[in-house]
Amino acid sequence: MDYATLLQILDSTLRLATPLLLACLAGLFSERAGIFDIGLEGKMLAAAMASASVAFLTGSVWVGLLAGIGASLLFALIHGLASITFRGNQLISGVALNFLASGITVLVAKGLFNQGGGTPQLTEGARFYELTLPFAEALQDVPLIGPLYSEVISGHPLLVYMALALVPLSWWVLYRTRFGLRLRAVGENPAAVDTAGVSVTGLRFAAVAITGVLCGLAGAYMATALQAGFGREMTAGRGYIALAALIFAKWRPVAALWACLLFGFFQALALRPDVVEAVVRVKVPVPFLDALPYILTVIVLAGFIGKAIPPRAGGEPYVKER
Amino acid sequence: MDRLPPWADIVLVPLISLLLAAIISALVLLSIGQSPVEAFNVMVEGALGSAYGWGYTLYYTTSFIFTGLAVTVAFHAGLFNIGGEGQAQLGGLGVAVFCLSLPWPHWSLALAGAAIGAALFGAAWAAIPAYLQAKRGSHIVITTIMFNYIAAALLVYLLVDWLRPTGQMDPASARFPETVKLPTLDTIPGFSLIFDKPVPANVTLFLALAMAALVWAILWRTRIGYQIRAFGKSEAAARYAGINPTYIIMVAMLMSGGLAGMMSVNNVMGEAERLLQNSSEGAGFIGIAVALMGRNHPVGVVLAALLFGFLYQGGAELGLWTSIPIEMRIVVQGLVILFTGALDMMVRMLLTRAFGLMRSQKLGAA
User: Fold this and answer.
1) Which of residues 121-140 of B touch A (CB under 8 A)?
2) I need a surface site. Which of A32, A260, B93, B274 has the fewest CB within 10 A?
3) Domain boundaries in chain B?
């Protein structure tokens, strides 16, 4: 494999890792607050549909982005209502919302555009376009580093850089602010937080809302940046890969970045089976590359690579003592 | 807090949940400019209005009984098996391997063989998450989700690279021999009087009903069933009573995976007569809704499977005869799971309040 091919693969790694990273950070906030969320997939899908539809109708990608976040927030709040207010089963609520999103996105898209459950192609201002970072062209001819900067790091839509910036931001919020300390505490020992006079319900709803916003970004990225429009089931299990990455990263933000880049790398490889074959000199089945994130996650869960310990109060509704 | 009378808990709570799901579905239909009344009529007419419709409804019902029972058995052991989808697809592989590799002289023998093959493959796929849960404490919900995706990838690989006959384009196995063709209800003496047109519902329906009876007998009439239920109620108490947690988790999940796998006898052997990609078509997930709706009791599961069979066939009719997309049935399904599974406490709270009011009024009158 030559350097140019490597750069191409790294470039698509970053592109494909971005929705995973946004969804993974979304899951991080929710699960750290003790709310399991297997509905990342559904929220992304809803956001993808809403953002593409509104962006097409208004012609503005920013209005579309807001609509995507709104749709995802709505799903997040239903999840919050079910799992915080009514102390329902969080896993079942997630499963239900995934179904709901899967059906309703096609229903609405067919109702609006009648194009087989997708939106028309987005053009002009209805999409996020690649940004060229400063000096990208000037540095292009510098050996090794130049092409790396201009092809891999530069030339992505804004949301890619936002997602990357959200990693240190999430770390800072979770580990360096009062809100973050309380959020982590509510996922480990909600009774202690309650005793300190802080609202468990309020904190958990805040966490679920952050999850909604981040999944909204992930979905909007899928439909308005990675691709030009919404297609049915376009998230294709990315919500679950993000969940896998979250476990792989042991519920930590910086590790989440590496996990998502790794899984994004697998996705990029799955698009280039010819390169894989040339490197390992054996024919590697594409389905194996597709399944690799899931297989790795199972190995991590089995405790063969360190131990993945979820937040202790995860999945359990909090009942205030009376 | 006031308690609900038992009959209200068993009958009224699911009914009201269902009603709420129906109301929201109607609102969804109204919002996309369709008539809920017309939609409901089309669904009832198409799914229950003719023997032909029933033939399809019962076909779907058969699949959902298996996957519903699968979720039920695991649930009684306190395990949430969300991997029915993958286990069912592996079951389909079992059916294909058994049907294609052995020369079956008669369909009845093939049915027994394929059912065993499907159960073995499905159980094997459930065994790894079960072992990891029992021995390494990995959360079974996450591992079974991962195994759904691994199963899907595995089947794509096997269908494309191994099972596909040479010269065939689509990723599917070879067609099963004519001798293993299962009788459909329209060819069974007696039933053929009712079903005058070819329908997909087949003898597997009776296998499903037998399995429901068997699951009931195992859970409520055997020692292992008692142990499973005790373990599900309280792990600590079960452990103290000398029940081996590893054994219970393994047995419950093997049964669960086996049942999910057996679903494939219905669709792979009874209908498609070859193994296709994504053969289970979401039936594994519907099993969750069926078990929730059926209150994790085999009788409830059979009734709920019938309800979902109706929804599925009715939904297909919607896609066929109206401008309402077929995806409406996924929306309804999601709403049913949401209200019966996640928001049941809301319904219960409302009902408890209503019953409390009635009681205080009665006291006031006296």
Assistant:
1) 128, 132, 136-139
2) B274
3) 55-306
Give Cα separations from B141 to A234, B82, B246, B286 (angstroms): 24, 6, 17, 16
Averaged over A149-173, what is the pLDDT?
91
Please give the average per-residue pLDDT across A210-223, as a whole number.
96
* Residue B174, pLDDT score: 86
Mean pLDDT of A176-201: 93
- Cβ neighbours of A83 in B, within 8 Å: 342
Predicted confidence (pLDDT) per residue in B275-309, tens digit? 988 888 888 989 998 998 888 999 999 999 999 99
pLDDT: which is higher, A315 or A106: A106
Q: What token pair was written down for B151?
A: 């199963």
CA angle B310, B316, B321 (to 5 degrees): 120
How many CA atoms are closer than 13 Å to the CA of B289, on its beta-carbon side? 37
- CATH entry 2.60.40 includes domain A3-126+143-301: no
What fold characterizes domain B55-306?
A: ABC transporter involved in vitamin B12 uptake, BtuC (1.10.3470)
Q: Is A5 exposed, middle or buried (0-12, 13-18, 19+ CB in 10 A)?
A: middle
- The CA distance from B217 to the nearest CA of chain A, in Å, is 27
Write down the ipTM of this complex: 0.89
User: B243: Cβ–Cβ under 8 A, 6 or more apart, which residues?
Assistant: B227, B230, B231
| CA A42 to chain CA mean position, Å | 11
Whether the pLDDT of residue B111 is over 60: the answer is yes
Length of chain B: 366
Amino acid residing at A318: Y
Q: Taking CB atoms and an 8 Å cutoff, what residues of chain A touch B80?
A: 91
- 3-state SS class at B325: coil
Range from A131-135, A216-220, B189-193, B317-321 that averages highest in pLDDT: A216-220
Mutate to test the interface with A, among B149, B159, B333 (most CBs of A within 10 A): B149
Residue A258 at interface with chain B, using a CB cutoff of 8 Å: no
Cβ contact A310:A31 at 8 Å = yes
* A245-269 average pLDDT score: 91
Residue A85 has pLDDT above 60, yes or no: yes
For helices B36-48 and B298-321, the axis angle rounded to 10 degrees is 110
Residue B195 clears pLDDT 80, i.e. is over it: yes
A305 touches chain B (CB under 8 A): no
